[in-house]
Amino acid sequence: MTTGPEPTDNLAALLRAGTGALTRRWIELAAAPLRGRLTVAELERELTELFRALVAAVESGSRDLQSEPYAEVRALLSDMSRHRARSGFTPTETAVGVFTLKQALFELVDRAEIEGDLREVLAFSLLLDALGLLTFETYAKAREEVIDEQAEQLLELTTPVVKVWEGVLAVPLVGTLDSARTQVVMEKLLESLVGSGAEHAIIDITGVLAVDTQVAQHLLKTVMAARLMGAECTISGIRPHIAQTIVGLGIEFGDITTKATLADALRHALTRSGVTISSGRG
Amino acid sequence: MERIPILKIGDVLLASIQIDLQDRDVLALQEDLAEKICSSGARGVILDISAVDIVDSFIGRMFATIAATSRLFDAETVVVGMRPAVAITLVELGLTLGEVRTALDLEKGLAILAALGDRTDR
């Protein structure tokens, strides 16, 4: 992508000369697909700054986006893309911010409003493609970060430990269980056992849609760990087809108490702790 | 080497482990406990490990060994105050404590021993 110093300077000169017309047209084109979700003033500030940095970088003579003179361009563009990704813009709406500059340049050259020969325009086009890719990469990365954050929040949200009776804790599990989640459940439950001094814990898996050997293994480990700490752990709410899966997979729950419903498990826990329940009548 | 103190409360012996256990500490504790149970005729042993946050398989086995030894003197062993991290480690190591009883804290451990004592007295 390296061209001689001669055309390089030409490109820089061309951009500098066309600054006013180029940025105006660029902002116009870039604003269209955003449909007012970003104010023109905001867009103008962003793009003008980006253009200024870009011209400065081009003037350095380098055409390599990874090189030192482009550091500011990269930083600005990354910020812009990340901001777009966070505020829910689509990939097209994000990338269009860069590619419209190419369109603006082509239009102006075509209408001969600014002077530019094919080589310069092609070199600039390649550079813009690289910038577009960078935008996209940053966008994807930012989206991944969002997804990771949400996954983490979900992990926190969906594993509450509730006290259902004096000395009885319950963990209602909902959704899909994977190793990471069962690990969180395990730690949270054990911490709560210590914190509350409860001697019974019920893991209710009514809301769990699928159980595989690994998840079963984790549940067993949780029960064993609770037992080691001196608490009794019951598993309740196994759905019929999960029960069949468990038997089909040959998973042994050994001497771990399993109950059909949370109510049964609670009754079991109360009986074990010596609470008797009688109806209010009589 | 530090000796882990063994306290006698009624007919229960209490060993509260407050230090990071070395293998030789464990062996010394095993010996001391056996002698103490024998000489005092205690009916129960409580190992308080609420201050222990690192265990290995050797220490894990110690609990089972102490329980088996004390059972020979007709004394029940209760391990109390195991931390979640320790419990998870022991499970990951694949160690079950066999016949050892466990309780969340000292109070519950004493209650277990008292209940066992009542049953055998009758």
UniProtKB/TrEMBL annotation, chain A:
Pfam families: RsbRD_N, STAS
Ranges where the STAS domain occurs: 158-269
Superkingdom as given in the UniProt entry: Bacteria
Keyword Phosphoprotein carried by entry: yes
Keywords, sorted A to Z: Phosphoprotein
The keyword Phosphoprotein is assigned to this record: yes
Gene3D superfamilies in alphabetical order: STAS domain
Protein name: RsbT co-antagonist protein RsbR
Source species of the chain: Actinokineospora auranticolor
TrEMBL record, chain B:
Protein name: RsbT antagonist protein RsbS
Native source organism of the sequence: Actinokineospora auranticolor
Residues covered by the STAS domain: 2-113
Gene3D superfamilies assigned to the protein according to its UniProt record, in alphabetical order: STAS domain
Signal peptide: none
Residue stretches spanning the membrane: none
A Pfam match: STAS
Superkingdom field: Bacteria
InterPro entries: Bact_StressResp_Reg (IPR051932), STAS_dom (IPR002645), STAS_dom_sf (IPR036513)
Coiled-coil intervals: none
